[in-house]
Amino acid sequence: MKNLSIKNKVTIYYSAVLIAVAVILVAAFLITMDYQTKTTTKSNLIKTVQSSFEDIEQEHGKLDIDDDLDLYKKGVALSVYSNKGKLIRGSVPGSFPENAALKNDSCREITSGGEKYMVYDLYTKYGKGIGGVWVRGVYNMDTSVMAGRSIMIFMLMILPVIILLAILFGRRITKKSFQPIAEITSAADDISGENDFAKRLPLGESRDELYYLTVTLNQMMDRLEKAFDSEKQFSSDVSHELRTPVSVVLAECEYILEENRSQEQYKESIESIKKQCVRTMSLIQQLLQLSRSMDKGAALEKEEFDLSSLCVSVIDELSYVADEKNVKLEGEIDKGIIYNGDQTMMMRLLVNLITNGIKYSQNGAAGGSYVKLSLGAGASGSGPVIIVEDNGIGIKADDIPGIFDRFYKADRSRTEDGNSFGLGLSMAKWITEAHGGEITAESTPGEGSRFTVRL
Description:
This protein is an alpha+beta fold and 455 residues long.
């Protein structure tokens, strides 16, 4: 059974159940028929014997049996006996024992000569001189058995035909029902063979379980296609980001090896090489950190900590960076907010968002440039809410959907230090989602941006 197809298994199960049901129904029919036959025979026997007394009367002290008395009625053989058990009229079947005792108002079965009989005796008392009369009714049960046997033989003959037709019909239905699976399998083979993840599995016309399974598989393939495209773009972006510093390093090396240089020229080249190595190391470190996002559950080391104190600590640590940029770093922190999460990851989230705001602050804005960190408990039943806003250069509406993608830069020309790889917001999004939350961005070019993290 393990090596059979589902279609064949369903057909076998269907056939087995059908045969079992048919056998049970036939057995139940035969048992019911046997019971009904005995019940009907008994009722008919008793009524026939009782009605026979209508033709037996007493006249002038003598017993008068009407000539119209039918001694064989509805398969019942009647015989009349005197008070002392002497046969007066009628007879019994040939193999029935003539000396069988008379028992008043008793219906019983007697087997004799290989045949089975149902017997009913009834005694009626008359006046003086006669005393009473017995009437015995005998019914040969083999008559009913023969009728039942004929029905049983007919059913046994027609049963295999019915089962065969039902199996063939069931197999046809099964084949038709599993046709969509064959089409899905064929389409999946085409997708796998051609590596064309833009194709989708065909949807059936009936909105049954297979239809919704196919919808789910197509949705999964949408996500897979998006993931493959993302990884392809990721590989391309990593190659691009690594190629730039490596090219600079190679160029500097070729420059200083061409001919003798002054000590100052060597120093400048080495400083340039060092700067590119630092840039490359920064990229590698960020990529290593991003690799943890492949398993969000395993990447977190959750514990309860004071989120409010963490926000205050991050503001204090980044104040000197903000001062160097002439940016005012503000905090509006609700006290006593305890959160269960990865404290290190939450610190990185805050640092990424704040440094991003400082980096793109609007120098010379009215009232001065600022970055503001807010922390609140959120609405009832929800988690903490973190808001980082600035009055920086802002982000175009067309760029907002892509700012959380890896290596995405809305404007590469605005990168000042050469160490921005477009990974900070991607990391922030991963940390937020790993904590079961969401991050959104709102921005107006020339006025500033607002990032909201709902944990």
